[in-house]
Amino acid sequence: AYSMCWTPTDWLIIASTDFEFASPERIALMSAGGEAVGVQLEEHVMVSGIRVFADGAEVWSLRHDPERGLDHAFVMGAAPDWVQPMIERLRAQLAAEGGEDSEVDFVFDAPIEAGATLCGYRHDEPFAGEDEFPDFTELKLSEQAQHQRWLERTPTPRQFWAGLFRLFFR
């Protein structure tokens, strides 16, 4: 599912339930002639990330993966000066709550906070100065796009029979 809204600072937000929607390739395409920010978060496993592209090239990124430790925050590229102090503040909160034994993964918020700092949108808060969450407009694929997607996902007869064979004769 996809939806969109505009922020008060004129950023177009496209929200998706697909974690891979904000892939480097897609963000690069969206940044042609400008800037695009892709934020990913999966609250079930507490993985988060942000990628910032300008004119098709990645400028910087920040990833958090708790499998590498609750304090994990990996920055690549030329991140703004405010990114590292933000990460250190979240790490300090984590340490104050027990570090690796903490029940709260504070550093998970680093990419999300970075996205909110850049474009004014955070998935779990209203826009600054607003009382209610933004109104999103649902985006739907055209019939032609739905048909194309169906064709791409429909196996050829050879793929179908090979899959069926693997299923029954493992």
Supply the key terms.
170 residues; alpha+beta; 4-stranded antiparallel beta sheet; 3-stranded antiparallel beta sheet; 5 helices; 7 strands; globular
Mind explaining what this structure looks like?
The structure is a single chain. With 170 residues, the chain is of the alpha+beta class. 32% of the residues lie in helices and 24% in strands. The strands form 2 sheets. It has a 4-stranded antiparallel sheet, sandwiched between helices. A 3-stranded antiparallel sheet has the order 2-1-7, with no helix packed on it. α2 runs antiparallel to α3. The longest helix has 14 residues. It is globular and about 60 Å long. It starts with a strand and ends with a helix.
The total beta strand count reads 7
Name the average pLDDT.
88
Instruction: Give the number of helices.
Output: 5
Beta fraction of the residues? Answer: 15-25%
Largest sheet: 4 strands, antiparallel
Q: What is the terminal-to-terminal distance?
A: 35 Å
Shape: globular
Which runs of at least 5 residues are low in confidence (pLDDT < 50)?
none
Structural class: alpha+beta
Write the H/E string, N to C: EEHEEEEHHEHH
Output the strand order for the largest sheet: 3-4-5-6
CA radius of gyration is 20 Å
Q: What is the share of helical residues? A: 25-40%
